[in-house]
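Incident review: delayed structure delivery

Summary: a single-chain prediction request sat in the queue longer than the usual turnaround. Root cause was a stuck worker, restarted by the on-call engineer. No data loss occurred. The affected request and its eventual output are reproduced below so the record is complete for anyone auditing the incident later.

Affected input:
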Amino acid sequence: GGGAGAGAGGGSGGDGAAAGPSGLSAVESVFMRNMQRSLASYKEYLEGLQSAFEARRARVLAAYADAEEAIGGSHAARMRRLEGDGGSGPGEMPEAPPGMSRSSSEVERDSLLAAARTRRDDALGELQREYDSAVESLVSSYDAYLLAAAPDALLLPTSATIRLLDRGGATFSARVLPTHFVRDLVDMLETHARESGDPLVSVADDARWG
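Output delivered after worker restart:
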């Protein structure tokens, strides 16, 4: 190994010297941890909305099924009364009590079923609109939260290319925070050289950084 002169050029990316096992700096780790926590919180709330929506939807459908069954049962009972009235032979239309006939009972049944379907569809539509509005409000709230929590661009890390002038201009990229000092760049340089199998003995005091 030996001494080194170095130069650095800027770019865009993340920070480097203080990076932990995950490759993130302490600042990035805090940011990511809080973003993950907030995302988990909003996802949990969204899942709660979805569960409530599905439960209410199931109740609406169950109520319609009960109404449909009741209407069908009432019609069937009328048909049994009609079939038992008079002395008609098998397969013949029985006499109907005054004001009641097979066709009028079927018309009433169909009308009641149609009304029940309309109530069901109206209830489902209103439920869907409420759910969509709640989700839209949640998304808007989360978007506003992220905009407020986003770090200032001046605090974001950037990338730098460090060139070793006395080693044939060899370069390597490093991620640098605005809060890093020259000592941080030296640490990155020494770490890179060591990991490359050619450790540095020292870095000259007059090494140029710019």
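Verification: Residues 1-23+157-210 form one domain.
Action items: add queue-age alerting; document worker restart procedure.
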